[in-house]
Amino acid sequence: MIEISIILVHLSPSLASQVFINAKMLGMMSKGFGWIVTSKTMNFLDSLDSSVYVSMQGVMGFKSNVSESSKIQNLTLSWTREFHQSEPGVEIKELNSFGVGAYNAASALAEAIESTGMKHSENWAEGAGLNLLGLGTLRVSNIGSAILSKITSSQFREFVEQFQPQDTYEILNVIGRGKRRVGFWNSAYGLMTEVNPSINSSSKILETIIWPGFSLAAPESWLFQMSGKSFRIGVPVNGGFPEPVNLYHDQQNNKTTFGGFCIDVFQAAVDRLLFEISFEYVPFYNHYGSYSDLVYQVYLEEKDYKVMRPDL
């Protein structure tokens, strides 16, 4: 069986935590393996339990980069001060991109409301009392159009852009109880060693990455171990909703075609690869029940399937 040595993790922090704890137990956080984690987990890295950190040694991941503008710095200082006052016994965590986004939305709306000259709250639900679900009593605000006009103005957009998340990611390497910054990435420059490279900058080399098992050698992708072999992608045929995956068999030409949203996304991802892979879709009649049973067939290499269903 081919050993999958590079694994991409795009999960919520809670699910990713379970994956890494179990991966360590199975010996998959050792030399020869490479784990790449998306911002979905890396943005909350500092909030993970210490046992998860121990299991993530050598992981590389992408974290949304927060601008270091004076506005953001002032926000971070204020938030840190208030957090320490309200939770003195809790270790202070950094303000991530979601915190900045929440502040952005709240402050932008407050700025728009204040600009209309509104000084007192309106009676939004007259007669509703504490019944917050009494939607029938809600009425349209008299200043709604003024707020909308402010939000769509050019000056307001300039205000919002001060807190707008950048299309830039920090590339972090988890080592010990901390993390090392090994570079940046954005859609304009690709890999970078600094967040604002000069126009003539051509540096695409990241800092040294320490992989699982404290190895300095980057693990080899299992795709290069295929030696020209073709993937057989099992597509379950269970008569369910046709929108995700569907199958059409042309009896006249004895040809089977596959379509649906998941097939389209999978094909688009393959088209973006920097190398070519050969594969074929194979109908997999769902006699095995759950997704877990289907994945187990891949483990057993049933009918030599290499991948199971593009939406898994």
From TrEMBL:
Intracellular or extracellular location(s)? Membrane
Give yes or no: UniProt keyword Nucleus.
Answer: no
Record Pfam families? ANF_receptor
Q: Where is the Receptor ligand binding region domain?
A: 5-164
- UniProt KW Membrane keyword: yes
Any Gene Ontology CC annotation: membrane
Entry keyword set: Membrane, Signal, Transmembrane, Transmembrane helix
Task: Report the principal subcellular site.
Answer: membrane
Against InterPro entries, the record matches this protein to:
ANF_lig-bd_rcpt, Ionotropic_Glu_rcpt, Peripla_BP_I
Transmembrane stretches, start-end: none
Q: Which residues form the signal peptide?
A: 1-16
Q: PANTHER family, per this entry?
A: OS06G0188250 PROTEIN, PERIPLASMIC BINDING PROTEIN-LIKE I
The name under which this protein is listed is Receptor ligand binding region domain-containing protein
- What is the scientific name of the source organism? Handroanthus impetiginosus
